């Protein structure tokens, strides 16, 4: 990657707006020593619990960990999980003023029961995934318009939990176009028509296959699918993330196949959040599309070696 050290130094101080589905990841950790006599399930002896930011909140956390100034727009309920998300963001120095509270909505919380060896036993999802509308949608769009005036890139993090409606996506894309800044989307297949006009969309290979109805088993097939995906989504560029097979990039005038760099994979949870946060900051710092993708690929290789939604530091990207 050309100018790698210089690019890393330029990530710090960039300003980013993250719009999307805010989630709280709740882990109950304990030891498994026997099977329940009541049913064929493991008995977990509770040891401790922990909370981490998930979804769009994890994207914001990743950008903040790389030294960016981050603003967040999303929806939470009037509940403990919503207050916890706000508190976590504020402790990290992330601007949570764009979060809209909806008294009729439950904050998305994923409760995972895991063993002390990080093996997942069960997951319980608390959520209300109906799409934002009415006053709540209008409030979200208004905050996007206000906060986008001072940022260098926008990320739309769509997890199908209701925050990203057609109106919200359109508001974010129009705000980016008015400012002349990149807008990146971590997509979901049912909303593919919402993202027209985006700068970069980052589907994983399953999402790319679902949208294009094409199999992806090779670099050539991935590139062909990226071309069809771009036509279908009407975006400028596509980055297909392919797990252990790396990434495939299709830009307006450039394309590249990037091999995976990870040597040890502990958990892929939240890796897409790291990819899009890193790529957005790199583009905001003036990197080419290929250099931004390469840096995002390196960030993914670090974060998949960690358990749960995690972040990567500048030092780790430098290999220190």
Structural commentary:
- The chain is α/β, with parallel strands linked by helices and 320 residues long.
- The protein has a single domain (4-22, 56-100, 130-314), classed as Ribokinase (UDP-N-acetylmuramoyl-L-alanine:D-glutamate ligase, 3-Layer(aba) Sandwich), CATH 3.40.1190.20.
- It has 10 helices and 13 strands.
- It has helices at residues 4-11, 56-65, 80-91, 134-147, 166-179, 205-212, 219-233, 271-284, 289-303, 314-318; strands at residues 15-20, 22-35, 42-55, 69-77, 95-102, 108-115, 120-126, 153-157, 183-186, 200-201, 237-241, 247-250, 255-258.
- The strands form 2 sheets. It has a 9-stranded mixed beta sheet with strand order 5-4-1-8-9-10-11-12-13, sandwiched between helices. The chain has a 4-stranded mixed beta sheet with strand order 3-2-6-7.
- Helix 2 crosses helix 8 (271-284).
- The chain is globular, with a radius of gyration of 19 Å.
How are the secondary structure elements laid out?
Layout lengths: L3 H8 L3 E6 L1 E14 L6 E14 H10 L3 E9 L2 H12 L3 E8 L5 E8 L4 E7 L7 H14 L5 E5 L8 H14 L3 E4 L13 E2 L3 H8 L6 H15 L3 E5 L5 E4 L4 E4 L12 H14 L4 H15 L10 H5 L2
Parallel strand pairs: 1-4, 1-8, 2-6, 4-5, 8-9, 9-10, 10-11
Antiparallel strand pairs: 2-3, 6-7, 11-12, 12-13
Summarize it.
This protein has about 325 residues and is an alpha/beta fold.
CATH topology: UDP-N-acetylmuramoyl-L-alanine:D-glutamate ligase
CATH architecture: 3-Layer(aba) Sandwich
Radius of gyration: 19 Å
Number-wise, the strands total: 13
User: What does the oligomeric state look like here?
Assistant: single chain
Mean pLDDT across the residues is 94
General form: globular
Reading side by side through the largest sheet, how are the strands ordered?
A: 5-4-1-8-9-10-11-12-13
CATH homologous superfamily caption: Ribokinase
Terminal-residue CA separation: 17 Å
Low-confidence stretches: none
User: What is the string of helix and strand elements?
Assistant: HEEEHEHEEEHEHEEHHEEEHHH
Q: Report the sheet-strand fraction.
A: 25-35%
CATH class: Alpha Beta
């Amino acid at each position: 990657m050309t100018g790698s050290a210089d690019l890393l130094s330029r990530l710090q101080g960039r300003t980013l707006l993250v719009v999307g589905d805010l989630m709280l990841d709740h882990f109950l950790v304990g030891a498994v020593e026997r099977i329940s006599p009541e049913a064929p399930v493991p008995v977990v002896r509770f040891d401790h619990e922990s909370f981490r930011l998930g979804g769009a909140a994890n994207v914001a956390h990743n950008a903040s960990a790389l030294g960016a100034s981050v603003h967040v727009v999303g929806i939470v309920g009037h509940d403990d999980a919503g207050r916890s998300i706000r508190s976590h963001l504020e402790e990290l120095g992330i601007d949570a003023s764009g979060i809209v509270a909806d008294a009729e909505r439950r904050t998305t919380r994923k409760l995972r029961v895991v063993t002390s060896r990080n093996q997942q036993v069960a997951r319980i999802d608390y959520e209300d995934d109906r799409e934002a509308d009415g006053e709540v949608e209008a409030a979200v769009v208004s905050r996007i318009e206000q906060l986008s005036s001072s940022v260098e890139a926008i990320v739309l993090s769509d997890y199908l939990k209701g925050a990203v409606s057609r109106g919200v996506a359109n508001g974010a894309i129009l705000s980016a176009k008015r400012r002349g800044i990149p807008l990146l989307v971590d997509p979901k297949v049912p909303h593919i028509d919402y993202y027209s006009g985006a700068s970069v969309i980052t589907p994983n290979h399953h999402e790319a296959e679902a949208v294009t109805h094409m199999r992806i088993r090779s670099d050539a097939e991935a590139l062909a699918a990226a071309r069809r995906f771009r036509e279908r989504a009407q975006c400028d560029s596509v980055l297909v993330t392919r797990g252990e097979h790396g990434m495939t990039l299709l830009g307006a005038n450039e394309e590249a196949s990037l091999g995976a760099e990870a040597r040890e994979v502990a958990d892929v949870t939240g890796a897409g959040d790291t990819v899009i946060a890193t790529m957005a900051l790199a583009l905001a710092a003036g990197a080419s599309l290929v250099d931004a993708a390469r840096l995002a690929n390196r960030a993914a290789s670090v974060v998949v070696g960690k358990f749960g939604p995690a972040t990567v530091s500048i030092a780790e990207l430098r290999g220190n």
